[in-house]
C-alpha cells in the first residue's frame, strides 16, 4: 500500500506523479498494489492514515512526502510518534550537509537541521541526490518505508534502495503485456473480443481508453498465459493494433511514412 502526503496534491496544484511511478515500478517486479491514499500535511491525519493502512496487514507500506526542512513538512515527527521511537541528531550527517551547501557558496539554513534527525529505532535510507534521507521501520510484520516527495529523489531512492530490498524478499516478476489499438471504441472492442474473453485465460485484464484508442493490458505471474492471450487477441484485432507496450501512435505513423517514402503534411 502507498501513502502520499502533501497539501499541494489535494489542492490539485501538483500531479501525484510519485504514485504513478511507484505503482508502475512495483507492478513490474511482481508486487500487487492494493491501496493508495493521499493525505494533507497534518500530523493527526498522517497518524490516522498510517493506522488505517497498517490495519490492512500489507507486506510493505510506502510513504512519500513531508520530509523537507520547512514547517509544513510534518511527516518525520508523525512517523516517529507512530513507530514509537525517539529522535537523535546525526552530527556527522549535519557536517556533510554543511559541506554540500558550502560547495555552492551557500550558508546552510538552520531549518535543515531537521533533516539530520534520525530515529533511534529504525534504519536510514540514503539520498544520493538530495538532503532528505528516508527511513525504514518494521511494525507487526509490515515494512514501513518513508521517502521524500521530490520526484527525482524519490525515484532514485526507489531504484537504489527500495526495489533491491523488495527483490531480496523473493518476489516473482509479473509478465505484463500491453496491446495498443485504434479506430475501435471500447464498447465495440469488448464485444469483438467476447469469444476470447469467455475462455478461462487466467490473466488480470484491463481496458484503458484514450483519445488515440484503447490499450489492452493483461498480466500473469507466469509468461505462458500472457503469450496465449496475446496471440488470441492479435488474431482477432489484426490491423486495429498499431503497437505494443509504450509505442506511440504518432511514432508508428511517422515510421510507416518513412518505410513507404511518403510525406506527411501538417
Automatic annotation (TrEMBL):
SUPFAM superfamilies: Molybdenum cofactor biosynthesis proteins. InterPro entries: CinA, CinA_KH, MoaB/Mog-like_dom_sf, MoaB/Mog_dom. Residues 1-169 form the MoaB/Mog domain. SMART domains: MoCF_biosynth. Gene3D superfamilies: 3.30.70.2860, MoaB/Mog-like domain. This is MoaB/Mog domain-containing protein.
Amino acid at each position: 500500500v502507498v501513502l502520499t502526503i502533501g497539501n499541494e496534491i489535494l489542492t490539485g496544484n501538483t500531479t501525484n506523479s510519485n504514485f504513478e511511478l511507484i505503482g508502475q515500478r512495483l507492478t513490474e517486479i511482481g508486487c500487487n498494489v492494493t491501496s493508495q491514499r493521499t493525505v494533507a500535511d497534518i500530523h493527526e491525519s498522517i497518524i490516522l492514515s498510517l493506522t488505517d493502512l497498517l490495519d490492512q496487514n500489507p507486506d510493505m507500506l510506502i510513504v512519500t512526502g513531508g520530509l523537507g526542512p520547512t514547517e509544513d513538512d510534518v511527516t518525520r515527527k508523525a512517523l516517529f510518534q507512530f513507530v514509537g521511537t525517539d529522535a537523535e541528531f546525526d552530527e556527522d550527517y549535519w557536517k556533510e550537509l554543511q559541506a554540500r551547501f558550502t560547495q555552492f557558496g551557500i550558508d546552510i539554513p538552520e531549518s535543515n537541521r531537521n533533516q539530520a534527525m534520525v530515529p533511534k529505532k529504525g534504519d536510514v535510507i540514503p539520498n544520493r541526490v538530495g538532503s532528505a534521507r528516508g527511513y525504514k521501520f518494521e511494525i507487526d510484520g509490515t515494512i514501513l518505508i518513508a521517502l521524500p516527495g521530490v520526484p527525482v529523489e524519490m525515484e532514485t531512492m526507489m531504484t537504489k534502495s527500495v526495489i533491491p530490498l523488495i527483490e531480496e524478499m523473493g518476489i516473482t516478476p509479473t509478465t505484463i503485456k500491453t496491446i495498443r489499438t485504434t479506430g475501435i471504441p471500447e464498447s465495440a472492442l469488448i464485444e469483438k473480443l467476447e469469444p476470447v474473453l469467455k475462455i478461462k485465460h487466467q490473466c488480470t485484464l484491463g481496458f484503458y481508453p484514450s483519445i488515440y484508442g484503447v490499450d489492452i493490458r493483461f498480466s500473469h505471474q507466469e509468461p505462458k498465459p500472457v503469450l496465449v492471450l496475446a496471440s488470441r487477441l492479435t488474431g482477432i484485432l489484426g490491423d486495429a493494433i498499431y503497437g505494443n507496450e509504450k509505442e506511440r501512435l504518432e511514432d508508428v505513423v511517422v515510421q510507416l511514412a518513412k518505410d513507404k517514402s511518403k510525406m506527411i503534411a501538417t
